[in-house]
Write a structure and sequence with these properties.
This protein is of the alpha/beta class. The protein has four helices and four strands, in the order βαβαβαβα. The N and C termini lie far apart (about 45 Å).
Length: about 140
């Protein structure tokens, strides 16, 4: 059993229909909440509105990445279990995000923009560290 509550969903963006079907089976086999695809009309909604079931009506520019949005959890155990299991799924690695009090108020598009900025910064930092390690070798 995972540390997810029964009413939680894991939202996914950027996966093809066949990948969504694979994710559904993957989640069911591991007792994870079902994956819920996000639609273009929801991109302008806040994360909290999406979690509340809002549909949205205004199409937005689609983020060019795969994202898996994990719900708030009482412990980190659910997140850790999910990330560990996902590594072996065979699916392309997305950007993972856990809902926080701050991100719940952002639109999904803003959240993805922020995650992409973080990803660029982390890659730059890793590259700089690698270059520094080479100099010190």
């Amino acid at each position: 059993m995972t540390d997810f509550r029964g009413d939680e969903l894991i939202y996914v963006w950027g996966y093809a229909a066949d990948e969504i079907e694979y994710l559904k089976a993957f989640h069911a086999e591991r007792d994870f909440p079902p994956p819920k695809p996000l639609f273009e009309e929801q991109l302008g909604l806040t994360v909290a509105e999406i979690q509340a079931g809002a549909v949205g009506t205004t199409p937005r520019k689609q983020p060019p990445v795969r994202v898996i949005l994990l719900p708030r959890m009482s412990t980190d155990g659910g997140i850790k279990a999910y990330l560990t299991a996902f590594r072996d799924s065979g699916l392309p690695r997305p950007i993972f995000a856990a809902v926080t009090d701050t991100s719940a108020g952002w639109t999904f598009t803003r959240l993805v923009e922020h995650l992409m900025e973080e990803q660029v910064a982390m890659r730059k930092q890793a590259q700089e560290k690698s270059e520094e390690d080479k100099k010190n070798w």
